[in-house]
Design brief:
Number of strands: 5
Structural class: mainly alpha
Largest sheet: 3 strands, antiparallel
Order of helices and strands: HHEEEEEHHHHHHHHHHH
Radius of gyration: 35 Å
Mean pLDDT: 75
CATH class of the largest domain: Mainly Alpha
Number of domains: 2
Oligomer: single chain
Shape: elongated
Strand content: under 5%
Length: 448
């Protein structure tokens, strides 16, 4: 019985286009090349059919074994329904079927593009290009933002640690918050370098353990950042209200909350991913409840910080009303607006705008929303360092004091060298007298 080649030309042409697109898009190792995989499958199929040839005599009716350029169909009797998995190069689950009839093999059902869910159409290259361009633009944007934040935060932490007069519980809490921003920016760069620098691994469907660790650590840094924003909110609220604990003891509670609680959440998330959704580099969100292990604590942190913000604003309004009853109300509102702006940036309250984004939105809405969220997230470290370090009056006074002290030492060295050179040349005594007068006339406030 002759082999009847019955398959849809459109489906084979679509898969051929897919193979050419993948091959031309990036040179991949042989073990990852779809053409190489298909060639291996063809050789294996022909060898298997040749070995089973003796069991299928020429006189018996049925359908002979057949390689249809995608799947290997074994010998079958009339009336049999044979199933085969999707081609290996697609790296997807699913099955296609053929019936063995009196006229030979039937057409495959369902079609490969439905059974294997590769969803190829003529607009795929254009859509891929547009999505790739958007991703590159967004990645450049948030990389610049995180780089600026990283540099400014490192300078801010150095300043707060260098000067002893700035050592207090309030600045120690600020330092921990700055370190969480530094950790977040650093791990974002590490995650991107791991996920997007070696794309060859992902063509084979093989995801190294390093990319999963990078994603997990990146999520930990984000959780730690939110928890330290919460610690800042509680610390400021406790300064304005009655507190039963000392500030130094409270600092240790904040350290446990800021660095310990995200670790507990991350362990739960990693366990759920490993047991129920161990796919890719753990960056997918197909199972909703696993994603909520990270999302729910973030929403709780934001809502609690919002409550602290409302309480602090009420306290500030009460103090401004009793502080200067005869003053201009414009000054009261100006001070209140300034305090509110500082608190919003410190508490990260702008994240509440992005915490309740619906899952089912249009692609353009999701792209705009993601761009704005990443723009705020990447530059928040710079804003916090600017407001709470570089523009802080206490820090500016300390820097100015150190600058005056350094200039004073430089002037003393210059004035000391000048009399010695004139004395060695003239050998007279008036230069020594003038040196004493100049030294004694320096203001005491500058001699620190």
């Amino acid at each position: 019985m002759n082999v009847v080649f019955m398959w849809k030309p459109g489906g084979i042409a679509a898969l051929t286009l897919l193979l050419q697109f993948w091959t031309q898009a990036k040179a991949v190792p042989p073990e990852c090349d779809p053409n190489f995989i298909l060639l291996q499958d063809e050789f294996s199929c022909l060898e298997r059919l040749r070995n089973n040839q003796s069991s299928h005599s020429s006189g018996t009716t049925g359908c002979r074994g057949w390689w249809d350029h995608l799947n290997c169909w074994p010998h079958a009797a009339v009336g049999d329904v044979v199933s085969q998995p999707c081609p290996r190069f697609l790296h997807t689950t699913g099955q296609v079927f053929r019936n063995c009839t009196d006229e030979g093999w039937s057409e495959s059902f369902p079609p490969h593009h439905e059974a294997c869910e590769y969803g190829l159409n003529l607009s795929l290259p254009a859509e891929e290009f547009s999505s790739h361009q958007y991703f590159i633009f967004v990645r450049i944007m948030y990389s610049v933002g995180y780089a600026v934040s990283l540099v400014s935060l490192i300078i801010a932490v150095t300043i707060l640690c260098m000067f002893r007069r700035l050592h207090c519980t309030r600045n120690f809490v600020h330092i921990q918050l700055f370190l969480s921003f530094i950790l977040r920016a650093s791990l974002i760069f590490i995650r991107d370098s791991v996920l997007f620098s070696t794309e060859d691994h992902f063509h084979c469907g093989v995801y190294p353990i390093g990319c999963k660790i990078a994603t997990a650590l990146s999520n930990y840094s984000i959780m730690a950042n939110y928890s330290w924003l919460l610690a800042e909110g509680h610390f400021l609220y406790s300064l304005l209200s009655v507190s039963l604990f000392s500030t130094r003891r409270r600092l240790w509670y904040y350290i446990v909350l800021g660095w310990g609680s995200p670790m507990v959440i991350l362990i739960g998330w990693c366990s759920a991913r490993y047991l129920h959704e161990d796919q890719g580099c753990w960056e997918t969100r197909r199972i909703t409840w696993i994603w909520w292990i990270l999302r729910l604590p973030v929403i709780i942190f934001i809502i609690v910080n919002l409550s602290f913000f409302v309480c602090i604003i009420r306290i500030l309004v009460a103090k401004l009303r009793t502080q200067d009853m005869l003053g201009c109300e414009f000054n009261h509102y100006r001070k209140l607006a300034k305090s509110s702006f500082l608190l919003v940036s410190l508490f990260g309250l702008h994240y509440i705008l992005f915490a309740f984004l619906p899952h089912k939105v249009s692609d353009s809405t999701h792209e705009i929303w993601t761009f704005v969220e990443l723009a705020f997230a990447s530059t928040q470290g710079f804003v916090v360092a600017l407001l709470y370090c570089f523009l802080n009056a206490e820090v500016q006074n300390e820097l100015q004091r150190r600058w005056r002290r350094w200039r004073q030492k430089q002037n003393l060295q210059v004035e000391t060298r000048r009399p010695r050179s004139s004395l060695s040349q003239s050998g007279g005594g008036p230069t020594n007298i003038s040196l004493i007068i100049k030294s004694s006339s320096l203001p005491e406030s500058d001699q620190v």
